[in-house]
Amino acid sequence: MAKVLITEQLHPAGPELLRAQGHQVVFFENLGGKTLGEALADADAVLVRISELRGGLLKDAKHLKVISKHGVGVDNIDLDYCRGAGIAVTIAPNGNSLSVAEHALTMMLALSKKLIPITNAYREIGFSAKNTMEGVEFTGKTVGIIGLGRIGRHLARMVTHAFGARVIAYDPYLTQAPEGVELTGDLDRVFREADFVSLHAGLTPETRHMADRRRLAMMKPGAVLINCARGGLVDEAALVEALEAGRLGGAGLDVTEPEPARPDHPLFRMPNVILTPHFAPDTTEAAVRVSTMAAQNIIDVLGGKRPEGQIV
Fold it and tell me: Which of 121, 182, 203, 296 has the fewest CB atoms within 10 Å around its CB?
């Protein structure tokens, strides 16, 4: 029997699976005054969402054999330390990809139809609000997708099949794009040509602030930026400037840098911004899938198997 530490709340499907396999499941929040480092000291496995697991924290986890990420982003895990220490790291590929892609599309549609400001205007001035603004049609627009992994591919299928959108995509790791997607090696071109730019890249030193002041200035007047990946992909100060100047039509952000966004953040006051609290993956279906996959990854590693989602 192994001791599995779960750092944050998740769907009970995963913990139930672990218990059914005879493992002891411990939730960090139930350990009273213990620090995360103390809780890790006698753990054989850890199932983590967004808690930071750096080498300095992991060095005393002498029994730790596997870190299982609830999701796919591993920027909160010290991969180099894990490689050196022989700790396996796994992700839950495709567990929440569909939910995130739907969230990105929902933000695009809501912003193009101005749903939030028109609702607020209706409440404030009544039916005459219908004469205060106009939405735009999404059908046939150009959607730029940066990062054609599972989420980006889901989104590309949605917008091409349902809305006849032209999709131009940038992904330096691909040489061939799905049908209906134009792959370009010029990142700037995506920002220049797209009516909607949707970010689905991992956060690395190379991608940090890829949506910077220079590239935001390239975007078409009225274009919309969507970020359901990592907050660090966007230079938020530059984004606020572009929105305040009226150069962009809006922004849909499920992530910020840092998280959570402070309550007085200027983005909260902008009528053409939708800001959600890293909520894109949080659907009932995705919660079950990811929790189960993350738990199964632990079971596989402890049982001597290499799961599909193992990256270290």
Answer: 182
Catalytic residue among 200, 230, 236, 289: 230
**DSSP per-residue letters across 89-104:** EE--TTSSHHHHHHHH
CATH class entry, domain 3-95+284-302? alpha beta
Fold held by 97-275: Rossmann fold (3.40.50)
**What are the extents of the domains in the chain?**
3-95+284-302, 97-275
Residue type, 87: I
Residue 198 parent element (H or E): strand 196-199
Residue 99 — pLDDT band, cuts 50, 70, 90?
A: very high
CA distance 141 to 113: 13
pTM over 0.85: yes
Backbone angles phi and psi of 108, in degrees to 5: -60, -45
The active-site residue, picked from 259, 285, 306, 308, is: 259
- Reported as type and span, the H/E element at residue 26 is strand 24-27
**230 an active-site residue?**
yes
